[in-house]
Structure formats: C-alpha cells, structure tokens
Amino acid sequence: MNIILLSGGSGKRLWPLSNDIRSKQFIKIFKTENGYESMVQRMYGQLRRVDADCTVTIATSKSQISSIHNQLDENVGISVEPCRRDTFPAIALATAYLHDIQGVSKSEAVVVCPVDPYVKDDYFEALKTLGEQAKRGEANLILMGIEPGYPSEKYGYIIPETDEPVSKVSDFKEKPDLASAEKYISEGALWNGGVFAYKLKYVLDIAERIFGTSSYTQLYSRYDTLDKISFDYAVVEKEDMIQVIRFAGQWVDIGSWNTLTEAMSENIIGDAMMDEACENVHIINELDVPILAMGVKNVVISASPDGILVSDKDRSCYLKEYVEARDREAMFAEKSWGSFRVIDAEKDCLTIKVVIKPGDYMNYHSHDFRDEVWVVVSGRGKTIVDGMEQYISAGDVITMKAGCRHTVIAKTELKLVEVQIGKEITVHDKRKYAFSVEACR
Amino acid sequence: MNIILLSGGSGKRLWPLSNDIRSKQFIKIFKTENGYESMVQRMYGQLRRVDADCTVTIATSKSQISSIHNQLDENVGISVEPCRRDTFPAIALATAYLHDIQGVSKSEAVVVCPVDPYVKDDYFEALKTLGEQAKRGEANLILMGIEPGYPSEKYGYIIPETDEPVSKVSDFKEKPDLASAEKYISEGALWNGGVFAYKLKYVLDIAERIFGTSSYTQLYSRYDTLDKISFDYAVVEKEDMIQVIRFAGQWVDIGSWNTLTEAMSENIIGDAMMDEACENVHIINELDVPILAMGVKNVVISASPDGILVSDKDRSCYLKEYVEARDREAMFAEKSWGSFRVIDAEKDCLTIKVVIKPGDYMNYHSHDFRDEVWVVVSGRGKTIVDGMEQYISAGDVITMKAGCRHTVIAKTELKLVEVQIGKEITVHDKRKYAFSVEACR
User: CA dihedral defined by B25, B30, B33, B36, rounded to 10 degrees?
Assistant: First the structure.
C-alpha cells in the first residue's frame, strides 16, 4: 500500500501540550510497553503492523520535520510544503513526491488520510481495501464513509446511492445542524473522515492541467506561486465517478481534550495524584511540579511550560479561542539536535535548559544583541567559541559575548543551563556559519 | 495594650503556597491599595490602627524570623522558641520576654491570640476590652467567646454561667459531634477561638512554680529541658476564676482553602484566566506559567514551585493528609537577605534563582561536596571568593569549587542564577565563616 499521511496544523485545541512548534500529533500520550507514544507514532506503528512494506509519505510543513525525524524511523518519506497553500497543492506535491522521489508508478493507487484519528488495526485494513478499490479503476476517487456513532454537527456527510459495502456517492453535505444530521443519518448518510484513494496518474493529470506541471521539483520550487485551491474544489466537486466504502470500526477524532482523554488508557501521566473523590479526571503533567487533584469531576488538567489548563471536559472544545487570546511565545521546543525549555524569564534575561542528543550539535552561530553563558549540568562534549575548541563536562562554564561564534557538540547526552542576557532577546537574533563537525569531533 | 500573637505551625493545609519554610500566615493573598498583604501583615496593620501604641510580641519558631522581619516593621518584638515544647512553655517564654525585654510591668495585662483568624477592626476593640477586664482583676483569666455562626465540630466550646456580656465560665467542651454542638449552642455556648488575657504576674508565678524560674534568659537557655505541658493543663483546668467576654463580630478561621478563598476580595491572583462558565472559582498562581480554567465550579486552583492544587472547595479541608504523603523538599524560601526558588532539578545538579535585597548579603560560607556557578542576571554588587573581591553586574560569571569560601553583597537588587553541581546536594552541606561586611562594601 502507498499512503500519504496529512500532518498539519499547530493545534491550539490541545493547549498547553500543543503549541506553535509542537503540534498535537507529537504529544506522547498513549501508553505502550516501554513508555508513551504520540498519535503519529501510534498510527505509523499500526500501519507497519498491518502492511510492513507500505510506502509511507508524510505531507507536512517545515516546522514538523524535527519532530517527525525524532519520533519515526528513517523509512518514512517526508513531503515538505515550503509554505501554506491549501489542500490541493499539498496533495499534488505529495503525490508528485511519491512518483518522482519514491518511484511509485502512475498506475499505482495511493490512500490519503489525516494523521490524527484514534483508530484500531481494522482501520488500516480498510485503508488497504480503499487502495485496492482505487487500483481496480471503477471510479476515479474512493472515499471512506464512517458509520456515524451519533448525529454530529462537527463532520461533513457523504450520501451513498445504495447501502452496499461499496456504493457510488450521490451527494455531499457540509457540517449540518442537528436536525439535518439526524435526517441524513436516517437516510443512510456516512461521516466524511477525510480519507480517500486514487491512482497517482489521476491527481498528477489534474495538477498538470491546473499548474502546468506535475514534476515534484517544479511544484516544490514554484510552490509559493501555486493557486490556493482546495482538494474539494479542484477534484471532488468536478468528479462524477466517486465511490464510498463503509467503515464501521472505531474512529475517534482527537480534536479536543474531551476526545483525547477518552482514548487514554490511564488517568495520570506525569507527576500527579488524585484523591478518591475525583471522578472521570485525567491529568497530564509535563512540569517538574507535582499536581494534586481533590474532589473534582469530569475535568482534564494538563500542564506544560506553556501553561496549566483546568477544564471541564465538555467545555474543553472551546479552548482554541481562549488560547489565541494569549500571544505567548512557546516555552518548549523539540529540535533535530535535542530540546530546550525556558526555566526562568526576566526583563533582559532568559534562562533555558538545553538537552543535546549524543553525537549531535547545534549550528555554528552568533547573536548580535545578547551575551550567553553555558553551565554544563551533565554529560561530555566539546565547545567551539570563535574557533577555539574546548572539551567540557559537568561544572564547566563557557561565556560568549554578543558577536562571538559558538557551537557545542555532544559526546554523550549533554545538558546545559543557558543564560541569555541582552536588551533584545529574540529567536530572530541569530547568524549561522558553516563549519565541519567531522573536523572537530 | 500588650499583645502576644501566636504564630505557629507549618501549615500543610494551604499547600502548595504554604510549606515547611513558609507558613500560611505569610502568604500574600489579601488585596490592598498597593498590592497584596499576608495574614500576619493584615492583622498587624489592624492592631496598629486600633491601638497605635500597642506592644506587640510574636511568639514563633526560628524558621519564621526572616519572614516576620521581611513583612513587619522593626517595632515588633519576637519571642523565639528554641525548639517545640507545647503551649505553656511558649506562652510563659513570651510573657517573660514581655516583662524582661520589653519592660512591661507584672501588674499589666496581656492578650494572647492566634495570628491567623480573618477578622475586622471590631475584633481588636474586643481584645482591648479583654485586656482591660484582666487588668481589673475580677478573674485571673479572661477568655473571648465567639458567638457561633453554626454548629461546628471543628471548635471547642465555652459554657458561660449567664448570658451577660461578661460572665463566669461554668464549663468547657472539646470538639463535639454535631448533635452535641447543636445542644451546647441552644444552651448559650460560645466558640473558643483561643484568645485570652491575664496579668503578667499570673503566668510568671505559674512558670516559677512549674519550672523554678520566670526569667526570660533562664527559660530560653533551658527551653529544651522544660516539660511539654499545654496551657490548658497547666492553667485553665486548675483555675476557678475564669471569665468569658462575648464577641459577635466577624471571625473566620483561615484553616483551609475553603475559608481562605471566602476571605479573598478577588477571584484571581497572579497570571490566570477563567471563562464565563466558571462559577465560584479562585485561582492563586505564583508560577510564571499561565493558568486557564474553563467551566469548573466551586474549585480552588493554587500553584507555586512546590506544586499545583486543583480542589473542590469542600474537599480542600482534607488536604493535609495528601500533602504529608509527599515528602518533597520546599522549592521556594524567603530568607532574611531575599529569596530563592528551584528552577530546575537534575541528578547531581540543582539550578536555583536567587534574589538578594539591595544592601543585603549572604553568609560567608563554603560547601564541601558541591561546586557552584553564579550567573548575574540583573543588578550590581560584589562577590568575595576566598578573600578576593570582585565587582559584578549582569552577565558576569563566578565559579566556586567545593571548599572555596564565598559570599555576595548586593548594591542594588541582585538576581543570580545559581547552578549547584555535586554528588550530594543538601542544605546541610554548609560551613559558615565570620567576615565584616562593612569592610567589604
């Protein structure tokens, strides 16, 4: 099977664990035998289990590359959107990537699905069936129709012509009100979970027609000039030959704390306690500070360096607007080389904790407007400051004045406390320089 | 008026804002014109307003001295218990302090009251009346009897002989069950708020009889050998001439989050937001991380570097046992010279933020088992390291190996990030040395 996983969005809906840098699909929240895994890890693992030879491409933005590399193995393809253009350019680019880079033939089928529903293995069996049906060529586009659990106002509906397992689609209905949703369901309508399959040639031909090219290199280099058009507008609305395949297995859209906590197998992740008077409470604590919950009911408590949320579970679906009201910079970020976390913020001074993975290193860089001090907390490695190399271990202190070039290379996992001092501390104050890490190891 | 304020207890009942180092009476929680004040500040201010010439002595333990000095003016006397011995030794010591140190005559009366009820100015008028009645000499001990608001099982009851404003006491009842409480109240019983007045001579004579001395110096130096006996056992149970004076004003015992939040004039202190679906919610946030509450009701949320509490208000009275279940070291402390807060904890490494008040300084000290690094975040001052003096300002770094003597003197308010590195980091690893700060300024 060939599959494109759509990994989008910044995800304010799961604040404070998701932020502008870390999207919800990368939060490690699902219990496994050896710890926790994220939505993206869970889905990738399930996919590999159902089809070990599956060609997986993740369509995503630049900001997620580090997280994907950190969380998945090297067999995953990544189609990076250089900027945001809407769904058709993104899907066309990923399809071209599959053809030009992964070498998948135009007559092969691909299944496109979002990375964030909470599903079981039968979902991936259904994806396979979707791909096989697309390959068969009875229709140009095959959709998955999810048997509705209840009349939801949150989803789009697919109206099939018949109640056969595979049916031609007669109509689509966008997010309806409750009464309409009930009516559609009584007439056999299915939820549209945004899952579909097609032959590569089909979408590449449309790309050729709209953009004048279906070459990955061309699409990528001209991406910021491509028309912002949706997949619905470019493809679905113009296509008569669409089929839908019914899916009756578990499918939970993890779009809010309410649905996410339903999918959690335990009530507490992190340092927390609750008393016996608590009912239906979930706590996810990424802070070093312990949480104690007493006598609260139907509540989710979630804490990270970005904030602390205490919300009635039903109310949590209104989270986005409140979080947007705060324009706070992300206090935690995962990087290709490790991670950092703000541990103290003062006027003209920021203190951060930096963890660098064994063998990894930062860019060689300088800042124009701030001095920095590193105190090595644990681990071993080497710093280069204005060309001077120095071996470092716990207790060592490195001072860097504004303008001085610096990097650090971790021999073992290296933890630093970094104190930044300056009138203007921003992520934009950074100049990068070329250097050969091989020559320095 | 002469008054002894009993400032005891570590106060796990208001965790995480109170801890082993900071008792609940020092939490700044009551809104004033220019910020917030603590219970102790509020009570001291009220006392001075009602009686500007009042002689105030606070009976307390060593660990509270810094907080008292930081929060109150220099006119307050402090009688420090060298160790814990129960209530009679503590009251005898404070009474001897009043006589020997403050120069109050033995024929004068003193009023003893706990530092933590939430009251209005009329309470202090009532204290004056209590003192005047003691001075009059009709009885040896004058108690305040609080008109009960409801049949509480939490308080002791005083049974007066008559319903006159001043009456002889006929009996005491310890914390009764609900039915008994109702019965006592119907018979005219009053709450015992632990407030009483006597002439100094009365208690000093009893001390002389029990301990063989009523001298402050003697009591202080022999304190750890004094019998552990309660004031009730030593005095109240043996005394026939006890009067009670009724008090009908506001009196709230701030012993739990439930009662404390009732006394707060606003719902949010610190960086927090709540949505319009929240009802009867109080948030006190001492962390830099914002709190968002959505759709919760009758809940108190309280956060400090020690922990995060989310509790149903009625449940919060059971807090103590849960907090005792955690034996976590205090992560924040107020010191005579400023304050410190743990901002990161690793195996073999602790990072703390230190704030030193202008003109103040640490002890000259060394550690046997850890190295330390100071990074100056803001302010100006001077360090002395193994006798070497150095002027410091933002961005300066001072490294101190284990064994090296060091201190820092703040010229302006000085903020440091201190990284401690060693196999065994404890508060006990500290040697102090004499030095003259005057010579070093």
Answer: 60
